[in-house]
Amino acid sequence: MEKAKGVLYVVGVPIGNLEDITLRALEVLKNVKIIASEDTRSVKKLLNHYRCGSKKLISLYKDVEIERSHKVLKFLEEGKDVVLTSEAGCPLISDPGAYLVREAHKRGIKVVPVPGVSALTCALSASGVNLSSGFIFLGFLASKKNRTEKGVRKSAQKSTYCYF
């Protein structure tokens, strides 16, 4: 009989105020023993604040994302549940983790999103901008005007679009 695979929980974490966390996110953080995070220092601060107990922390920042993702995938294949967080906000939104999530799907590992804080939606909801026609998010663009324009054109050609 094949051993059951673990679950990869993609958990949104507070952007600045540690109290901006959902009860569900806290429950998952308390119960899972392995956490992969863009910045282990920020997640450690959060875990200590809420007394979540000792965890195995795996740093998953951009420069080591692919290499460390394979380590995380091994834990998942062994039946261990893992949390993926970003430094702040929602993982994969201009943060590393896409490779890990994509590979988990390819391997038949269940990926469960745990909604939490998103800087983008928080900023939009407080902006007063009329969003009835939707919005487009392109992430971090280059600071020079000509590179920004090229980036927008390139993104328009290969971006993911969501609408209802």
TrEMBL record:
InterPro entries: 4pyrrol_Mease, 4pyrrol_Methylase_sf, 4pyrrole_Mease_sub1, 4pyrrole_Mease_sub2, rRNA_ssu_MeTfrase_I. It comes from the Bacteria. Keywords: Cytoplasm, Methyltransferase, rRNA processing, S-adenosyl-L-methionine, Transferase. GO terms for biological process: methylation; rRNA processing. Coiled coil: none annotated. Residues 8-151 form the Tetrapyrrole methylase domain. This is rRNA small subunit methyltransferase 1. GO terms for molecular function: methyltransferase activity.
